[in-house]
Structures are given as C-alpha cells and as structure tokens.
Hints:
Elements: E1 3-8, H1 15-28, E2 30-35, H2 48-58, E3 65-69, H3 74-80, E4 85-90, H4 93-110, E5 113-118, H5 128-135, H6 147-160
Parallel strand pairs: 1-2, 1-4, 2-3, 4-5
Helix pairs in contact: 2-6
The structure holds 4'-phosphopantetheine.
Amino acid sequence: MPVACYPGSFDPIHLGHLDVIEQGLELFGSVVVVTMHNPGKPSGAFALDERQAMIRESLSGWDNVRVEAFPGLAIDAAAAFGADVIIKGLRSASDFDVEQQMSLMNHSVGGVRTVFVAANPALSFISSRYIREIALYGRDLSGLVPAPVAARLAQLAAGRRPS
Ligand code: PNS
C-alpha cells in the first residue's frame, strides 16, 4: 500500500488539514502526518509536543494514519517514514506558487514527488495563523478545528488573553 507523507507546522491542526488527510487516505491508503518546523514561521502558539498531542487526539480512531515529528527536511522525513510521496493541500493560487517551488526543489534534491490535492472549498479559508490570532481573544472556533484543538485554544485564551 503506497504511503503519503503529509508535512506541516500544524500550529494548530484544523479541519482543512483533516480534509487533506482524508483525501490522502483515499488516494494512497496510508498517511504519515509529520509535524515539522517552518523556518518562515518562527512565532507559533504551541510547542511541538502540544501540536503532536492535538493531532493524535484529533485523529483518534482513524485507521492507517501515523503521527510523527521530524526536525529536518521534508524529503528526509519522507525517507525516514517510508513514504512514497509527499502530499499537500492547495487552498489558493498563492499556495500553489509556494508549493510548486518547494515540490520542484524536493524532487530535484530528494527525488520525492509531491501530490497536490484541492482543498474542500467549504474549508479552504481556514488558516492556523488566523485561528491562533482569533483564539487569543477568546472567540469560539469549534466550527473550524477538531474538538481537542478547540479545548486547548480555550485554555490558551484563558491564560494569555490580552487585557
Ligand atoms: O504548515 P506549513 O507551515 O505550511 O508547512 C510547511 C513545511 C513545514 C511543510 C515546510 O516549511 C517544510 O517542508 N519544512 C521542512 C524543511 C524543508 O524541507 N525545507 C525545504 C523546502 S524546499
């Protein structure tokens, strides 16, 4: 059964990410979700272990999904976890511009192909960045994130809400 590697920051994981994982399972049968560092996003909200915990809780009961973390390159993560391809979700043309270049770099250097899936239009506006931002003000985001994430965002808001 082919294995797809789904790398991301997942800070935090949201319903758009779950849609990509579902599409990956339909296409490949097995998905490794790999929490990674994005050098372009230095200031996140959740530590790696918290992001991992939220992913595990959100995917509880899902078959054929592994949750891992990796400190280096996506191509090395794919090799380390026995993945045949990298999978990415595209929400917009601007996503494509960034992801196309990364996919070509990853293939050139690591020989790994990237498969893009179109984000579900009903979810394609969701972004982790805006989830973090809105959560700080205590707003309910339970329609956009899995229940375990909504619970942690509420805790985050209670502890860090700006005065
Ligand atoms: O969820 P994100 O922040 O859009 O995910 C981006 C991520 C983590 C997948 C990307 O930054 C990445 O692949 N980081 C690992 C480092 C790497 O492989 N860099 C080379 C890119 S060509």
